[in-house]
Amino acid sequence: MPALLSRAGQQDASGYTVSVVSTVSYGAFLVSPLLVGSLTHWMSLPGALSCLAFMAVPLLGAAVGARPG
């Protein structure tokens, strides 16, 4: 998280990007336990955590694709 905030601060002096990164990470912090708990009603805990990992793949792809190169 500190690396993301540092990178966002370097790219945007107005602070908008830092606020977006902070909001998304805080939202994920609040929602992910609820999502895991809901998924464990239908599958095992390792399966629910695997679902979270698979849901993060598109975000990883977007982050890699958005890198300046």
Walk me through the topology.
Blueprint: H1 2-11, H2 16-39, H3 45-65
Helix pairs in contact: 1-2, 2-3
Give a quick summary of the entry:
With 69 residues, the chain is mostly helical.
Keyword list:
mainly alpha, single chain, 69 residues, 0% strand
How would you characterize this protein structure?
The chain has about 70 residues and is mainly alpha-helical. The protein has 3 helices and no strands. The radius of gyration is 15 Å and the shape is elongated.
Element pattern in H and E: HHH
Structural class: mainly alpha
Low-confidence stretches: none
* Integer average pLDDT: 81
Q: Compute the CA-based radius of gyration.
A: 15 Å
Helix content: over 70%
For the termini, the CA-CA separation is 22 Å
Largest sheet, strands/sense/barrel: none
What portion of residues belong to β-strands? under 5%
The helix count comes to 3
Looking at the chains present, what oligomeric state does this protein adopt? single chain
